[in-house]
Write a structure and sequence with these properties.
With 216 residues, the chain is mainly α. The chain contains five helices and two strands; from the N terminus they run ββααααα. The protein is elongated.
């Protein structure tokens, strides 16, 4: 069992290799669990938002469904976007705890010599990312690499803005429901020409002349 030095230990004491491996396995499982949870939570929100937006737009075509309920649903979408964004921030903090532990274990030198910088995946990635961001201006968005947090925040903000916009548009359309109602055409009643003719005064009725017998 080869001992490994712990830089944080007083006096530069060493740790057994199996102890270091156990710490690395523990830190990796911690990091993997929260990283996987973060991606699953984000995917669930995107699916949820897609279904809610599509369902709301479909219900708008039905005149029998109250527009107020649909507007509330759109505003709730913006609220849920904020909640999931805060949840993503919490997951990010937990992931960083795992990353810090893995970086610390990577930098623990072997008793026989210094650590290999190439195999320090988390540490070398951090150095490369820091160098890239320090040399790439913010306005060069086409070549600047965004972090997961920046990309997720952009999606949350976009969906939240869509929810607010659809909620406002639906609310403003509440009073125009009557204008969207189908117009019933009134067909004028056509009367016969005889009925529209002006009645003329009736001629006096002449009684038939009585037949008077001639005298014999």
């Amino acid at each position: 069992m080869e001992p490994k030095q712990d830089p944080a230990a007083p006096g530069g004491s060493t740790l057994p290799s199996d102890r270091v491996d156990a710490l690395r396995d523990y830190a990796w499982k911690y990091f993997q669990f929260h990283a996987d949870q973060r991606l699953k939570t984000f995917n669930f929100f995107v699916l949820f938002a897609t279904v809610l937006i599509g369902g709301g737009l479909t219900l708008l075509k039905d005149e029998t469904i109250p527009r107020a309920g649909i507007a509330v649903g759109f505003f709730l979408l913006a609220f849920f976007a904020f909640v999931f964004w805060k949840l993503d921030q919490r997951n990010k903090d937990l992931i960083r705890h795992g990353e810090a532990a893995l970086k610390h274990i990577e930098q623990m030198p072997y008793a026989a010599g210094a650590p290999d910088e190439i195999t320090q995946i988390f540490s070398s990635e951090e150095r490369a990312t820091t160098k890239h961001r320090s040399t790439t201006p913010h306005y060069k968005i086409l070549i600047r690499r965004f972090s997961f947090s920046e990309n997720f925040a952009l999606v949350f903000a976009t969906i939240g803005a869509i929810g607010i916009a659809l909620g406002v548009a639906t609310s403003l359309g509440l009073g125009s429901a009557d204008h969207n109602a189908p117009v019933v055409a009134h067909t004028p009643t056509v009367f016969p020409a005889e009925a529209l003719a002006t009645p003329t005064s009736a001629s006096p009725t002449t009684a038939p002349a009585s037949v008077i017998p001639s005298p014999p």
